[in-house]
Amino acid sequence: MGQSASIASHQAVKTGALASRDSSIIIVGGGGTMGSSTALHLARRGYTNVRILDVYENPSLNSAGNDLNKIAGADAVGLFGGASDDAWVAWTTDPVFMPYAHSPGKLELTSIGSAGAKHLREKYDKLISLGRSDIAWLANEDDIRQRAPHLAQADIKGWCGLYCSTGGWVAARDALNSVGYELRRLGVKTAFGTAGTFKELILSDDGKRCIGVKCIDGTEWNADLVVLAAGAWSPVLVDLKGQCTSKCWVYAHIQLTPEEADAMRGIPTMYNDTYGFFMEPHPTLNLLKLCNEFPGYTNLQKVQPFGSPKPITISVPRSHAANPSDTIPTESLDDIKRLVSKCLPHLAGRPLINQAMCWCTDTDDGQWVVCEDPRWKGLVLATGDSGHTFKMLPVVGGQVADLIEGKLSEERRQLWRWRPGVGDPLGTGRGGPPPKDLSQVPGWRHDS
Ligand SMILES: Cc1cc2nc3c(=O)[nH]c(=O)nc-3n(C[C@H](O)[C@H](O)[C@H](O)COP(=O)(O)OP(=O)(O)OC[C@H]3O[C@@H](n4cnc5c(N)ncnc54)[C@H](O)[C@@H]3O)c2cc1C
Question: How far apart are CA 282 and CA 267, in angstroms?
Answer without folding.
Answer: 12
